[in-house]
Design a protein that fits this description.
Blueprint lengths: L21 H15 L15 H6 L1 H7 L3 E12 L3 E8 L2 E8 L5 H8 L6 E10 L5 E12 L9 E3 L2 E3 L5 H6 L1 H7 L1 H23 L3 E2 L5 E2 L11 E4 L4 E5 L4 H9 L4 E9 L11 E10 L3 H20 L3 E4 L2 E4 L5 E4 H9 L8 H10 L10 H13 L7 E7 L15 E9 L2 E8 L4 H16 L10 H9 L4 E7 H9 L18
Helix pairs in contact: 6-7, 7-9, 7-15, 8-14, 10-12, 11-12, 13-14
This protein binds one RNA strand of 76 nucleotides through helix 1, strand 1, strand 2, strand 3 and strand 6.
RNA sequence: GGGGGAGUAGCUCAGCAGGUAGAGCACCGGCCUUUUAAGCCGAUGGUCGCGGGUUCGAGUCCCGCCUCCCUCACCA
């Protein structure tokens, strides 16, 4: 481990012994006592013969043969009865009961056990048997303390599915993921699900011929989305840099450079509000394929979800917010114009700005006088249509004003070839036929610059370097972006992004 | 930023028409060699989020602030 500064978890015991509560004080005394006994409370390893899981699954065979079994895990509960005791240890999501009996252990081991606590990590060896009350148990003949707990773990009390004293204060959970992962099974399951999801996406893209690449997080010029960036300072260059808000513009430089299929799964940063569905630091998957368009991307998304359904969810139907959602392909595909027409009866194609504004505000939606047609449509759509898109739905063809990096629609004026995928009323993917006409791109950027000058601090700056790449020439390209956090949120049924982000940003404790 | 809720022992929580802080679990001591929310007996433990104010007296009432949750706004 490298030198780490103390965190906001509190002072280390050595720093302020007078502030220790009596529990920690007692444990430090036990630690000293163990060392006096010649026991290293933090030894270097332990060789198990089985995991707790495999010991339980092979229990019948192992208990019959009475062979020696070595297990390790964290102590979660202790029931002392004088010269005998029962404890439960946990390894990963699996728990097994241990039986300690004084005259089955060497004197030193028994003494070490007496100095044990909830939260300690034990290595034990012994034989498996079933107790009088029918619980599968390891009768311990040798105890090895593997790690001494100093900071008390909340004691859980549970029987079958009932948990007393559940440790669930949201703030504590988010600030102390270590305890959360030990005590709360759902948190552990979400972590694993997230890992499986990203692995599956990588496997899928790899097998489809995409190359995983890494592009800069700190950029002198940000772009690729409409968002406010975080600003930082590069000392070596004495220059302000931005944390990227999207990977897009760099990945497309690679496409122009002749790499036909690329992707990146990494953090983006947007200096904006935090709530259940927004996190300023979030994980984005972006992929680009040369010689393809947004139709290809729709197929790609469907194939990817089919795979996630099979390999992660193990089913193609899941529940979110009391809705049963089906991931069976094909997903519904509908143009934005059709959906708006269907849900609100409003025509959005080729409309006069003021007429449209009136119709929309008649629906009770606030329309700002500065908004153009695109923004008005966007607002109408978000208000009236998005929340209804529960089953996976590809929404096609957006107003050009909203999509400065997307190619104009091949057959409809004023639109671009773009889709977003909605599930459970949330956007989970965004894709377009990438704009590769450098002249058109320049004028879109100029329009953005005009908006920026007019006070829109989320509009794109002009990226000359990117324009040069387009001037050299980028093949027709299909591009796709997918927010991984939201995807995990939906697939795991989580209520808040913070439940699927291991260490969500919280205000530092004073 | 607006509105609502929460903050009391290590954990989960009670206390409130203002009268010297409570329970269970954890922890410590004692008893207990198949228990399982183990049990029984005893002890320790709290600037009641922080800071002001009202009052003879504030966990409780008033004001300000901090943190978290929900919600709206902003926003992917």
């Amino acid at each position: 481990m490298i030198n780490t500064p103390t965190t906001d978890q509190g002072q280390t015991p050595e720093e302020s012994p007078e502030k220790l509560d009596h529990v920690m004080r007692a444990r430090l005394e036990k630690l000293t006592r163990l060392r006096e006994l010649g026991v290293n409370p933090f030894p270097y390893g332990f060789t198990k013969t089985h995991t707790v899981e495999s010991a339980l699954s092979d229990f019948d065979k192992l208990s019959e043969s009475e062979e020696n079994v070595k297990l390790a895990g964290r102590v979660l509960s202790v029931r002392l009865m004088g010269k005998a005791a029962f404890t439960h240890i946990q390894e990963e999501a699996h728990r097994i009961q241990l039986y300690f009996k004084m005259n089955l252990l060497e004197e030193l081991d028994w003494e070490v056990f007496q100095l044990g606590d909830i939260g300690d990590i034990f290595g034990v060896s012994g034989t498996l048997f079933t107790t009088r009350t029918g619980e599968r148990t390891l009768k311990v003949s040798k105890l090895t303390l593997l790690s001494k707990n100093i900071r008390p773990l909340p004691a859980i009390k549970e029987k079958e599915d009932t948990v007393w004293f559940k440790w669930e204060d949201k703030e504590e959970v988010y600030r102390n993921r270590t305890i959360d992962l030990i005590l709360n099974r759902e948190s552990r399951e979400k972590l694993i699900a997230r890992s499986l999801i990203t692995r599956e996406i990588r496997n899928f893209l790899d097998e489809d011929g995409f190359l995983e690449v890494e592009t800069p997080i700190m950029q002198s010029m940000y772009g690729g989305a409409n968002a406010k960036p975080f600003v930082t300072h590069y000392n070596a260059l004495d220059h302000d840099y931005y944390l990227r808000i999207a990977d897009e513009l760099y990945l497309k430089r690679l496409i122009a450079g002749g790499i036909p299929k690329v992707y990146e799964i990494a953090k983006d940063f947007r200096n904006e509000g935090i709530d259940r569905f927004h996190s300023p630091e979030f994980t984005m998957m972006e992929c680009y394929a040369a010689y393809e368009d947004y139709h290809f991307c729709m197929d790609l998304v469907e194939r990817m979800f089919t795979r996630l359904a099979i390999n992660v969810l193990k089913k193609d139907v899941f529940e979110y917010d009391n809705n049963e959602i089906s991931l069976k392909a094909p997903f519904k595909r509908s143009t934005m114009a059709d959906l708006v027409k269907e849900k609100c009866g409003i025509d959005i194609i080729d409309r006069d700005r003021d007429e449209l504004a009136k119709e929309v505000s008649d629906l009770g939606i606030h329309v700002d006088t500065t908004w153009g047609t695109g923004k008005i449509i966007d607002e109408l759509f978000s208000e009236k249509v998005e929340p209804e898109l529960i089953q996976p739905t590809f929404v096609l063809d957006y107003p050009v004003e909203l999509s400065p990096l997307a190619k104009k629609h091949r057959s409809v004026d004023g639109l671009v070839e773009r889709f977003e995928l909605f599930i459970a009323g949330m956007e989970v993917a965004n894709s377009f036929s990438e704009l590769n006409d450098p002249i058109d791109q320049r004028s879109r950027f100029e329009e953005q610059a005009r908006l920026k000058a007019a006070g829109d601090d989320e509009a794109h700056p002009i990226d000359e370097d990117y324009l040069q790449a387009l001037e050299i020439g980028m093949p027709p390209t299909g591009g796709l972006g997918m927010g991984i956090d939201r995807l995990v949120l939906i697939l795991t049924g989580a209520e808040s992004l913070r439940d699927v982000i291991l260490f969500p940003t919280l205000r530092p404790r004073s």
